[in-house]
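Quick question, first post here. What does this chain look like in 3D?
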Amino acid sequence: MTKIPDPRMPTISQAVPVDPHQLPERAAALLDDGYRVALIAAHDDRLSGSPDGSSDGTGLRVVYLFTRGETLGRAESRIELQLRLDPAAPRLPSLARLSFPAGRFEREMHDLFGILVTDHPLPQRLVRHFHWPRGWHPMLSDAGAPPAFGDVEGPYPFRTVEGPGVYEIPVGPVHAGMIEPGHFRFSVVGETILNLKARLWFVHRGIEKLFQNRTPEHGVELAERVSGDTSVGHTLAFCQAVEDARSIQVSENVARRRAVLCELERLYNHVTDIGALCNDVAHSILNAHAQRIREQLLRINDQVTGHRLLRGAIRPGVTTLAALPDPTHLASLAGDIAEIAALALAHSVIRDRFTGTAVLTTQQAHDIGALGYVARASGLAVDARHDHPTHTARFVRAEPTTTAGDVLARFCARTDEITYSVAILTTLLAHLDGDLGTNQKANERVASASPSGTPRSGVGIVEGWRGTIVHRVELDGTDRLTRCKIVDPSFLNWPALPAALTDTIVPDFPLVNKSFNLSYAGNDL
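> Answer (accepted):
Ran it through. Tokens below.
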């Protein structure tokens, strides 16, 4: 594994106050300079105030986080645009015509905070359920108790497709098997899909509000449960954000332990998907072997952390491992996985079902803002392990090897990820110093992070197994959380599924859906 020594660590975000009328111009300049909209978060400062002192606690504030990696040969940087809104009439101009992800963040912000976004091209509700009364916005400090269920505003306004032979197929939100709820409305002619609308947000748990008033240490248990199959990714992003706010820099050994856990999480999830994709085209024997390997990886997880889903190891400032995985065993499992993938791709029926099915073009992936293996399968070289490094020995970016953007490409992207992850793990394990317990110096730094008396903010960026995860936290003067904004890659990748399904046949939907394998819980917080 080639590694690039680089002593630089992620920089603290530069906060820039702007007026609403300046926002589109400033945002356009950043987007033109290679930045992306990584996060947009509204804040109700009426109780807590803001970390930069820009708000006196009398109204709403919005934070726009733009990030840029090294795709342009420049150092990684983060820039925040912060706006204060009129508490009597909170409104701001839409960036949806500049950035598709921004438009989704804006709709979410309107539903949860009641902020009016003017000139939005699709101003319909996103998160808000029909049983929420009009004017009730749960993230406001004075929102009160959740309302009783009731059909107040009527059904969701699905797009209607009309024409000769067009009919609709509704699926969900309740599905067979252990799948989370989501409603899919297909408009089809024969078996060909003309349009798919995915209606999600049936599992809204109010997680971001549950973070409020907790200490960061007590916030970890929530971070571990944002999306159950991404416990490490979300916990690490949360802890990085807390450490950023507290100005704590963890030791190199702690950073490497965390990277080991990230790659172990990546392995067991990708193996699961490889088997499930084979199962969706009726090759159940390959799925059985993939699940056999998954079970071995889960047992390794349990040996390393005491938990099969790798929970309990990462805390702000520290990371504790019970054991280190055996790189020889991991290499052997990677060989087994490669054999399963080779058998799958040598099977004419599997290759026929995968090839050319549900293509997400490079341009579509770019415009939607896709992340992770979905983006890489469509030819976009995005990888936060390289662009936003967490330790000084950074690894070469995971370059796409298949760019067709179809189910086959997303299958191959997973097999490539497994090979890459095992190579990373082999290198990391060779450089760990063998100290598996809590690092004493790190403990001292955490203990010294006593309440500062002033609010602070921090950002954490991690390449989770589905793609880039971003957490942004704000702490008050007593070191309690006043806001935790979370962006799971599924929030940005879900719109890619309907785009790829256009002109695909209905029977291929389960296969295509699994090829994306997006999180419902991570999307709906």
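The first strand starts at residue 3 and ends at 5.
The chain has a mean pLDDT of 87.
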